[in-house]
Design goal:
CATH architecture: 3-Layer(aba) Sandwich
Radius of gyration: 20 Å
Helix content: 25-40%
CATH class: Alpha Beta
CATH superfamily: NAD(P)-binding Rossmann-like Domain
Distance between the termini: 43 Å
Shape: elongated
Number of strands: 3
Amino acid sequence: MVIESTGKISSISDAISIGRLGATLLLFGITTATEGALPFYQFYFKELAIVNSRAAKNEDHVGKYLEGIAVLQTPCKEGG
């Protein structure tokens, strides 16, 4: 596994270059670039997998907190 945490195109390119055959690339950095040069043939030839990491936003949890509170307030059934 190669973990890229800067979000820079040059670092993503380096991650692709140093990854072994079948490696997973974890893109942890935030990339705002809309274009850039990457070694796509290496990505293809090495059969790399890219995994994206994303922090949760408040919108991801709308209503989930209230559901959790409701579950915690539900009395437990005896024997179950």
